[in-house]
Amino acid sequence: MKIGKGVEWAAHASAVLALLPPGWALPGDALAQFLGVPAAYMAKQLQALSRAGIVTAQRGVAGGYRLAREAADVSLWDITAAVEGAGPLFRCTEVRRNGPCGASPAECPGPCNIAAAFHSAEASYRDALAAVPLTELVAGGAKTATAERKQRIGEWIDEHATRPAE
Amino acid sequence: MKIGKGVEWAAHASAVLALLPPGWALPGDALAQFLGVPAAYMAKQLQALSRAGIVTAQRGVAGGYRLAREAADVSLWDITAAVEGAGPLFRCTEVRRNGPCGASPAECPGPCNIAAAFHSAEASYRDALAAVPLTELVAGGAKTATAERKQRIGEWIDEHATRPAE
DNA sequence: TGTATTGCGGATAAAATATATCCGGAATAA
DNA sequence: TTATTCCGGATATATTTTATCCGCAATACA
């Protein structure tokens, strides 16, 4: 019961895209290089973000990825759901219906209490992640970075960012 | 990123044990039969509950499992942590340290914002499950059960429960 | 029109985890 | 002593995660 690392990569990648000047983009390979992760697998996570409408992909020579909407409108839950899926963590197999004393269908109108409790707890989890906008992650990262590193990041972006047609 | 079914089984098993008269127990095989799940694998989950101090195991002829403490003092989180482990769902691999613009150790005093946000969300999840005592699950289950089924369950327990020495 | 670039989706494979079974041994009551 | 019951480890299978590769489509530019 662990979260895949694709979520972590996608979150970091989204934070980097939030640093781009409006209208600019970053190719997937460059993004993977910046984060120091395998490009082929990172590409899969970026595709998931694209399918979910979090980033916009532009094919072709000066193409790449950019945020599909403002960073303030992208939450950590959006990213998690895009990569990991939005389905419930707890899967009820209706154990109550099993065995010598199993419940009849008539006795099972809704989800059992155990499933209901897990789904409620997952809603708390989801809400907590939904309350974290991408802007917060970017701002927090900027706070601990030295001025020297910020400059190097800016230079790297200038060097690798592309300018796709609108 | 899914919860194993062992958690579901352990929760149901604990709820059954809560129905036992004080001082009585149920062998693991009987419990598995009652829930209609594979006995050998159910045994693993019961061992986990035992290691976590949620149930007490009694070996020998009239042995079996019983709750180690009152049902009101056992939460759904206790059961989940016992079976699935209490470690974090999100595992930070310190991506911020990677790549051409990776942060220096001095710039990483605490966990990064992404990891912190996930850990905070997981705390909400944990707290929600910790707020659900076993008594609540038992009471909820009793509400939807017919009188006829409750009687059958009582008879089944009378037939299979054992009376270990204190 | 051609060519280089870039993302998309599917096929594939290796590694890790979840699911499941079995067995020898220890503990226990009768 | 015997039958029972739990414990822990070894093992096997299935599923998921992690990762790579390739052909194709889209795009910009010469």
Index terms:
7 helices, 166 residues, 2 strands, two-stranded antiparallel sheet, mainly alpha, homodimer, DNA-binding
Written description of the protein model:
Two copies of one chain form a homodimer. Chain A has 166 residues and is mainly α. In chain A, helix 1 crosses helix 3. In chain A, strand 1 and strand 2 form a beta hairpin. Chain A is elongated, with a radius of gyration of 21 Å. The longest helix of chain A is centred in the last third of the chain and has 18 residues. Chain A contains seven helices and two strands, in the order αααββαααα. The N and C termini of chain A lie far apart (42 Å). A two-stranded antiparallel sheet of chain A has the order 1-2. The interface between A and B is large, with 62 and 62 residues. Chain A binds a DNA duplex (30 and 30 nucleotides) through helix 3.
What topology does this entry show?
Two copies of one chain form a homodimer.
Chain A: H1 5-17, H2 28-35, H3 39-51, E1 55-58, E2 64-67, H4 76-84, H5 113-130, H6 134-144, H7 147-160
The first copy, chain A, binds a DNA duplex (30 and 30 nucleotides) through α3.
